[in-house]
């Protein structure tokens, strides 16, 4: 049960369009509206970056410094060798001055207002449930009484419970709708397929009815 109810909200004035509400007729055709604007005030909408100043900082910069040499020998091919010296370098660091811009976060204010509008508000659920149905016709909606600006959202869920194995294990099989529910009868034989770990994988009706693949089962419509 839902009722089209007046509620108060807050919004940025620039994002708000004043509209008269339209009340629903038989639960449809409504418009929430936005009216009775009040309590205008300035609030922080967001922050923006604004240049403040430049600051000096120091950065460690690597550079190469000579650090001796390595000696190797090249065979001249005539029984003699030529000495070759290759310079070595090591890495050192020096502090270099840098400049960077510093920004501050300045608040940007916009006008905010309170206003009235409407929305569907849940009142309470009416539930009808039952077990061991002999036929689909025994599944009925609960009775309810609507006021002028009420509506009803209906949700259904059907399950068939199977009992299997020497210890009478129970497993509930989701059933999509009443027509599918009508194919299940009390005390009819079914085949339950389970894994080596005891997880139910599939439930099949032995009379050639539906087979429910538990692993690939989608959530039933509600």
Describe the model.
The protein is mainly β. 2% of the residues lie in helices and 56% in strands. β2 and β3 form a beta hairpin. The longest helix is centred in the C-terminal third of the chain and has 4 residues. It starts with a strand and ends in a 9-residue tail after the last strand. The C terminus is likely disordered.
What brief labels describe this structure?
flat; single chain; 1 helix; three-stranded antiparallel β-sheet; disordered C terminus; mainly beta; four-stranded antiparallel β-sheet; 9 strands; 222 residues
**Structural class label:** mainly beta
Relative helix content: under 10%
Largest sheet: 4 strands, antiparallel
Strand content: over 45%
Beta-strand segment tally = 9
Low-confidence stretches: 218-222
- SS element count, helices: 1
Radius of gyration: 39 Å
Distance between the termini: 16 Å
How would you describe the shape?
flat
Name the helix and strand elements from N-terminus to C-terminus, one letter apiece.
EEEEEEHEEE
* Spatial sequence of strands, sheet with the most strands: 2-3-1-4
| Overall residue-averaged pLDDT value | 87
Quickly describe the structure.
The protein is mainly beta and 222 residues long. It has one helix and nine strands, in the order E-E-E-E-E-E-H-E-E-E. A hairpin with a 5-residue loop joins strand 7 (190-194) and strand 8.
Topology:
Blueprint: E1 2-12, E2 35-75, E3 81-122, E4 150-151, E5 158-164, E6 169-175, H1 178-181, E7 190-194, E8 200-205, E9 211-213
Antiparallel strand pairs: 1-3, 1-4, 2-3, 5-6, 7-8, 8-9
């Amino acid at each position: 049960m839902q009722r089209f109810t007046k509620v108060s909200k807050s919004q940025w004035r620039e994002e708000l369009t004043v509209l008269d509400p339209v009340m629903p007729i038989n639960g449809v055709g409504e418009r929430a509206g936005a009216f009775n604007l009040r309590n205008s005030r300035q609030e922080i909408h967001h922050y923006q970056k604004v240049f403040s100043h430049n600051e000096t900082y120091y950065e460690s910069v690597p550079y190469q410094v000579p650090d001796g040499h390595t000696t190797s020998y090249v065979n001249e091919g005539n029984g003699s060798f030529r000495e070759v010296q290759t310079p070595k370098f090591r890495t050192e660091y020096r502090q270099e001055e840098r400049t960077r811009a510093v920004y501050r976060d300045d608040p940007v204010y916009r006008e905010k207002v309170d206003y009235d509008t409407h929305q569907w508000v849940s009142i309470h659920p009416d539930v009808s449930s039952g077990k061991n149905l002999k036929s689909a016709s025994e599944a009925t909606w609960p009775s309810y009484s609507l006021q002028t600006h009420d509506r009803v959202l209906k949700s259904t869920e059907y399950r068939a419970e199977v009992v299997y194995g020497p210890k009478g294990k129970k497993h509930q099989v989701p059933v999509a709708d009443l027509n599918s529910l009508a194919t299940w009868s009390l005390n009819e034989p079914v085949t339950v397929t389970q894994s080596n770990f005891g997880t139910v994988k599939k439930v099949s009706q032995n009379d050639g009815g539906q087979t429910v693949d538990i692993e690939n089962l989608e959530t039933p419509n509600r």
